[in-house]
Specification:
This protein is of the alpha+beta class. About 30% of the residues lie in helices and about 20% in strands. The longest helix is centred in the last third of the chain and has 17 residues, at about 545-560.
Length: about 600
């Protein structure tokens, strides 16, 4: 569950440019009496949707970014992708190999912004929610075609699933003071140290919302007891609170719904416009930020954001670059705007839908799986990956190529070997005649309607247009199915292709499993393969890097053989900042990207 989804070009859907009627503080207004910068304004492109980004509905990059700024982190990745520890926030250690047993300890001083201690009960709740062990109904029974939860009040359904957490089958044990939790895995797990993290949702708030327990200690005890006793009546209420209680698009009246135990706490949230974060003065269990206030603005159009940079209304912005915005930002260098360029931890891809009665579903052809496969292969032959890269990425990074791996990114150790073995290079160039032959071979008449779903953005629209022009030549009618709620529609089956981007959040070997395993939280096209499932199960316990690579090659070969979809390209990342107001901006190759190590940001030294 480590990858996060985002619209192509890291653009928002449905977010509005701030208007003068309710404007966010301007960047140049945020100084003390001596002219020292005390507050910065940052564009995050889209509006956060929930304080709980672990649910299927809210597993989005923007929610992860907000979490990074407002929650205690035990570990983080530095610029070299080396994992660093923050021991005052907590620590973890492996205490046994057989069975694999891990002990997580929460720092003694860590507390939520309402003064209630952060405990390992929060981590227990996360395990209960994402492991799937307590659900009494399946995903199919508990959700409608649009992915909305329709579970009955007496049914337990946490709207999340993490295959790695599911490996912890026995209920974790808590220490008497609730500061330690012991996790016992049912099998060896290669990424145990990359995925162990503290929780993000306060158990005492869930206990109040679900069980009506106002006293924080009693609320924690109530949730813990429900989990330990497998109390289905209480767990059904807890699941509903966990799924829905922390979703909001403006500042809730109930301040407990957005508690912080990190460096910043949220004080304002104006719908569709901006969030204000103030430094949490009680925060002593991690590096204290030098900037006292951050205003997060939601400007979905990067050209509009660049204009705000030019006008001094933004101090920092980040986008997966397109040629137009790259040129505009470079033109601002003489106005003190520095732009850092490089490949981002964001890759665009197009995934096909396998079970919606559409052109790629065997049911459409009376259950003929081979016919559906040939139609999928024919369509993928028409996707102009090289032209997409040429138009979108190469004007920024001249040596960019189509990405030829689902799991490895260009330049990563193993990428060349995997991309040579998996078969994706067969799709590097468009093959219209080959597509026509496949359709003729299985007797499928044209035109074939294909609904292409994407978030409305300049980059997403350009990819759609290029694909439409190409696929038409082979008899596919690629229908614009863009929508501002594209992320909500993922998994709904009301489209045949979903084109969006994944954001990498760790260097875990098994990170991509949720995207491809049967029932995986991010497997929105409902692809299923015993070969893929088995390979990942074996990968979890494989410690040899070469053997890991062979297993991932097996995964990728199977994805290609079944025409799962296509990686398109690794995005060019652009991070622009006002050098006269901000220094020490060092984007990370993985999420949270441009927000990485925000505690090092500071105003330039006075001359």
């Amino acid at each position: 569950m480590n990858t996060k989804r985002t619209a192509l070009a890291v653009l928002a859907v449905g977010a509005l440019v701030v208007t003068a009627a309710c404007a966010a503080p301007g960047a140049n207004e945020n100084q003390d009496g001596d002219g020292q910068v005390t507050s910065i304004t940052v564009n995050i492109g889209e509006s956060p949707t929930s304080w709980n980004g672990d649910t299927r509905a809210h597993n989005m990059a923007v929610n992860s970014q907000l979490r990074y700024l407002t929650r205690a982190n035990i570990v983080y990745y530095d610029q070299d992708l080396t994992r660093q520890s923050l021991p005052d926030a907590g620590n973890f250690e492996k205490v046994s190999d057989d069975p694999l047993t891990v002990k997580l300890t929460i720092g003694q001083d860590v507390k939520w912004s309402d003064g209630v201690a952060t405990t390992a009960a929060d981590r227990l709740l996360t395990w209960a929610a994402v492991s799937g062990h307590f659900n009494t109904v399946s995903d199919e029974e508990a959700t409608d075609e649009q992915g909305n939860v329709i579970a009955a009040e007496d049914q337990v359904y946490f709207n999340a699933f993490d295959e790695q957490e599911a490996l912890i089958k026995d209920t974790p044990t808590l220490s008497e003071d609730l500061k330690e939790i012991t996790l016992v895995y049912s099998q060896p797990f290669v990424d145990w140290d990359a995925t162990v993290q503290s929780s993000t949702i306060p158990t005492h708030v869930v206990g109040r919302l679900a069980l009506g327990l106002d006293d924080p200690q009693e609320a924690v005890k109530g949730v813990v007891k429900a989990i330990q006793d497998n109390d289905k009546t209480a767990l059904a209420k807890i699941a509903r609170a966990w799924n829905n209680g922390f979703a909001f698009d403006s500042l809730p009246d109930d301040a407990s719904l957005y508690l912080s135990n990190g460096a910043y706490k949220m004080t304002k949230f104006v719908k569709g416009e901006y969030i204000t974060l103030e430094r949490n003065d009680d925060y002593t269990w991690g590096p204290k930020p030098k900037i006292s206030e951050i205003v997060l603005r939601f400007i979905s159009d990067p050209n509009a954001a660049a204009t705000e940079m030019e006008n001094g209304k933004l101090d920092l912005m980040n986008t997966a670059g397109n040629p137009d915005i790259f040129g505009k930002l470079k033109s601002l260098e003489n106005k003190g705007v520095n732009t850092k360029v490089g490949f981002a931890a964001v890759y665009a891809h197009a995934d096909l839908v396998f079970d919606n009665g559409g052109p790629f579903d065997p049911a459409t052809y009376g259950g003929d799986a081979d016919k559906a496969l040939k139609v999928r292969q024919a369509f993928l032959k028409t996707v102009p990956r090289a032209e997409i890269v040429d138009k979108i990425v190469r004007p920024i990074i001249a040596d960019a190529e189509p990405r030829d791996s689902f799991e490895y990114f260009p330049g990563q150790s193993g990428y060349d070997e995997v991309s040579e073995a998996n078969g994706l290079k067969a799709y590097d160039e468009v093959d219209i005649e080959g597509a026509k032959r496949l359709l003729e071979e299985v007797g499928v008449t044209t035109p074939i309607d294909v609904r292409w779903m994407f978030g409305p953005s300049p980059t997403g629209t350009r990819i759609y247009q290029l694909t439409h022009e190409s696929a038409t030549q082979a008899g596919f009618n690629v229908v614009d199915s863009s929508s501002e709620d594209w992320d909500v529609r993922l998994g709904s089956g009301d489209h045949d292709v979903a084109a969006f981007a994944w954001v990498t959040t760790s260097v875990a070997v098994s990170e991509g499993s949720a995207n491809y395993i049967t029932g995986g939280q991010n497997n929105f096209g409902h692809f299923s393969s015993a070969t893929v499932d088995t390979a990942y199960r074996n990968l979890y316990g494989e410690l040899d890097p070469e053997a890991q690579k062979r297993l991932l090659i097996d995964v990728e070969k199977e994805l290609v053989a079944n025409a799962f979809g296509l990686p398109l390209y690794q995005s060019a990342g652009l991070t622009a900042y006002a050098s006269d107001r901000l220094t020490n901006v060092n984007p990370s190759p993985i999420s949270p990207q441009f927000l990485s190590e925000f505690w090092n940001w500071e105003p330039p030294a006075k001359k």
